[in-house]
Design goal:
The complex is a heterodimer of chains A (386) and B (449). Chain A is built from 16 helices and no strands. By secondary structure, chain A is an all-alpha fold. Chain A has one domain. Chain B is globular. Chain B is an alpha/beta fold and 449 residues long. The chains are: A mainly alpha (386), B alpha/beta (449).
């Protein structure tokens, strides 16, 4: 690959200060570090470094998301064929390709807009581009309903990246989860595109594939049915496997569990947060069921909607969650309880996970503050005792 | 019974090029240099001029802030030059050694019969007091402030570190004398590893021996202080590295300043890693010539790979240096798509690589940072390798923000930069943690002066 390295070295001066392509410096830097690990050697401190870096971590998260994404694509096709009544005659490949053709434009648009803004911002600030958007870019389409139009995604990504991340200082400085901010922005600004019963199944043909469903076709998600006080028709098996309508990536608990295993094993996401969310949600759901307020089993809440997806991929974002080990338990419990609370008590919000995680993000610094304060108090007491 | 403290956090790095437990003889070329930068926190005032003749033990420079603290020449001979850098900062005082060495005779003494003040006076006069460091601030100790305790760590567990038990062989009496001398000043603790069995360590007298069972950095004296008797605001402890205890012991037993130390010559680029006896300040090319693999550009480190400073092949042995490690520089690696490759030959503590599968494999890391500097993203990385009751991440953030009150609250007085060496190694955000901690300590020192 030395010809590529030599080529890059040859064109590099054009992007330096004073070069004619200086305006694209951040793009060149991003490409260069994408292709080749920087050769910079340590100047101060340790002379050797672990092979882990931000790029590796982000790419591991994307890999962990792939099972949920791939299943989501298949499920988009499945729901479309199911709604058209042509499920029996459709092959796996047909449904998957259809789903992929529907979902891919959303992902492409999300990356182009998000990375474009990040490159421009990095150029403006004179800083190196950071990898945070690699994960947010794939998360945003996965937490949106399939009926969400592309132009709406553009607005959401722009809002989330600029006001959710860049103005705070970029990757590592944001308070709220960027992907969830995009979803929250859309939920409150374009509710008809994001909720209700008309957005969960893909209704159009694409490149001749799929089925055209009639205008005004509606299909509620199980949570939507619950909010209208109807018992969901889906079986527990369907809920766990994922053959229900919902946001693109959230339906299959099995696919999410594979992702969770990858993240826990590589140490990138905290199992404490995941476990405490499930415990908190399950416990409160059991309490509601005992009080007669739940028409379904308490454990079905853990398999429905975005609960599993949020617990594994969104709440565990290391930047916006609690950073102390003790705090992570409390943070998870709060989010789990809050999700079930919103779902059960508020019919206006069939899904509570998004708001619960944003709520958790808001309180994470406070929880950490209390934990660290305990350490500080211990130190003060130790010095005054002497 | 020796008290055992078990530490759960930490990380042992298995690197190639461990020095074999045998000594090679190297001939000195007569060039020596004492570098003030070896003694952290002092401002040197040079006491000799070019052309002056000095004996081994004569002071070459003193600390401007504490003029009683002198720094002795390791050899007798002629002062060749005083090297200065930017803004006349003293880089080194160079001495060419005579063929026949002459020593300043400070007189043999029995430390058991001396008071603490008399011991300190002797060390000051002989110019070896500067080898004692202190917490807080992890700088050269000030002789005017009495410490609440003195800590010596005989456990060296940094990667490829010089084995102190090997160095100690034949010098047990010097070591005990040094410990006794320190014990006259204040209560002295000797930290050892559970695998260290030498009687001179486990049965050391006049000190309290505490054994540590854990991975690196259990040998860091700062970590040991944190577990035995943490430093509170307003308190001072002295920390003495074990070879300095030998210097002290030799001074009282022979009356002379003998700055001989055993150095582990190690690293993947060394043909035959082994130990060598050298004097503080000895020119390194005596050790390096014809001893390295010729394949590529190398980094010569005065110290170990985590806390040592890079030097060039014509550098000099640092005052506190017990290893010379040579690793590949790596600035021509051009690794294609490295971040998504399996990287079987590169060590990572993160299980997204496959190092964990390869068991006891020895790694030959180069000096690359392997990533760009980022804001802190992952949480809990530092805590896994920092076995102290300190929230490392929050302390670093407080230092970066310059928040002095918060730094104090979070325990800045208890840490030294080397405690964060492993955290800096595993950090995925590639922050210069040791440099940041040093800046924080300097900030506090200036504030409290």
């Amino acid at each position: 690959m030395s010809f590529l390295r030599n080529y890059l070295n040859r064109i590099k001066p054009n992007f330096e200060e004073g070069g004619k392509l200086h305006a694209f410096r951040s793009v060149f830097d991003g490409m260069e570090t994408f292709l080749y690990v920087p050769n910079d050697t340590a100047r101060t401190g340790t002379n050797i470094h672990d092979a882990i870096d931000s790029k590796r971590i982000m790419s591991m998260v994307v890999i962990a998301l792939l099972p949920a994404l791939l299943f989501g694509m298949y499920n988009v096709g499945y729901q479309n064929y199911l709604a058209a009544g042509t499920l029996a005659s459709a092959s796996f490949i047909e449904m998957f390709v259809y789903g992929a053709l529907i979902v891919l434009p959303k992902i492409i648009v999300s990356y182009i807009v998000g990375l474009g803004i990040e490159f421009i911002w990095a150029q403006w600030k004179g800083e190196e581009i950071q990898e945070g958007y690699l994960v947010s870019g794939i998360l945003i389409p996965m937490i949106l309903p399939v009926g969400c139009p592309l132009w709406v995604i553009v607005l959401a990504v722009a809002f989330a990246v600029i006001f959710g991340k860049e103005i705070f200082g970029g990757t590592g400085m944001n308070i709220f989860n960027v992907a969830l901010l995009a979803r929250a922005f859309l939920f409150f600004s374009y509710p008809t595109k994001m909720s209700g019963d008309a957005v969960w199944v893909s209704t159009d043909k694409i490149f001749g594939m799929g089925n055209q469903l009639p205008d005004g076709f509606t299909m509620a998600t199980p949570l939507g049915e619950l909010a209208q006080n109807n018992i969901p028709q889906a079986s527990l098996c369907d809920m766990v496997l994922g053959f229900i309508p919902g946001s693109i990536g959230e339906t299959s608990v099995i696919a999410i569990a594979i992702g969770a295993a990858i993240l826990i094993f590589t140490g990138i996401a905290s199992w404490k947060i995941m476990l405490s969310i499930f415990v908190g949600g399950g416990a409160l759901a059991a309490v509601f069921q005992h009080a007669g307020m739940l028409p379904i089993e308490w454990y079905e809440h853990l398999a429905l909607g975005g609960f599993a997806f949020g617990a594994v991929f969104m709440a565990t974002d290391p930047v916006t969650s609690c950073r102390t080990e003790c705090g992570k338990w409390i943070y998870g419990l709060i989010i789990g309880c809050m999700t079930v609370l919103i779902r059960v008590m508020n019919p206006g919000f069939p899904e509570g996970m998004m708001l619960a995680i944003l709520f958790g993000n808001m309180f994470a610094p406070t929880i950490d503050y209390c934990v660290v304060q305990r350490n500080i108090t211990k130190r003060i007491n130790r010095s005054t005792k002497k | 019974m020796v008290k055992v403290i078990k530490l759960r956090k930490g990380l042992n790095l298995n690197l190639a090029g461990r020095a074999a437990l045998e000594k090679i003889t190297i001939r000195s070329n007569g060039h020596y240099a004492l570098q003030p930068s070896s003694f952290v926190g002092i401002t040197p005032k040079v006491l000799v001029r070019e052309g002056d003749t000095v004996k081994a033990g004569d002071a070459l420079f003193a600390d401007k802030n504490n003029p009683k603290v002198l720094f002795a020449s390791p050899v007798s001979g002629k002062v060749v030059s005083v090297e200065r850098g930017e803004r006349r900062k003293v880089l080194s005082v160079r001495v060419d050694a005579d063929a026949q060495q002459e020593y300043v005779e400070y007189g043999r003494k029995e430390p058991a019969r001396l008071s603490g003040d008399e011991v300190v006076e002797s060390l000051l006069a002989a110019g070896i007091f500067g080898y004692i460091n202190q917490l807080p601030y992890a700088v050269s100790a000030c002789p005017d402030v009495k410490p609440k305790a003195i800590f010596v760590s005989a456990l060296r567990d940094m990667p490829l570190a010089c084995d102190f038990e090997f160095e100690l062989k034949g010098q047990e009496d010097d070591f005990q004398t040094g410990l006794t001398a320190l014990s006259r000043i204040a209560k002295t603790y000797l930290g050892i590893g559970v695998s260290q069995t030498s009687a001179a360590l486990t049965g050391a007298k006049d000190v309290e021996v505490v054994a540590f069972d854990g991975k690196c950095p259990a040998g860091n004296v700062g970590v040991q202080v944190n577990h035995i008797d943490p430093v509170n605001k307003g308190e001072v402890v002295w920390t003495v590295e074990p070879t300095a205890v030998l210097f002290i012991g030799r001074l009282f037993r022979t009356g002379r300043v003998d700055l001989r130390r055993t150095v582990a010559f190690c690293g993947s680029e060394v043909k035959k890693p082994a130990y060598a006896d050298m004097l503080v300040g000895q020119e390194l090319n005596t050790l390096l010539s014809n001893a390295l693999n010729d394949s590529r550009q190398v980094r010569v480190i005065n110290g170990n790979v985590l806390t040592g400073t890079p030097t060039d092949k014509n550098g000099f042995l640092g005052a506190h240096t017990s290893e010379i490690t040579v690793i590949p520089e790596g600035n021509d690696a051009d690794e294609f798509f490295g971040w998504i490759m399996p990287r079987l030959n590169q060590f990572s503590v993160n299980r997204s690589y496959f190092s964990w599968l390869l068991g006891k494999k020895k790694y030959s890391p180069d000096a690359r940072i392997k990533g760009g500097e980022r804001h802190m993203i992952m949480s809990g990385e530092y805590d896994k390798v920092l076995p102290m009751d300190i929230y490392g991440e929050y302390l670093i953030k407080a230092i970066i923000a310059g928040d002095i009150d918060r730094m104090e609250q979070l325990g800045i007085y208890e840490v030294s930069p080397e405690d964060f060496a492993l955290a800096e190694f595993v950090d995925s955000s590639k922050l210069e943690l040791q440099h940041i901690v040093r800046q924080g300590l300097d900030m506090l020192r200036k504030e409290n002066a």
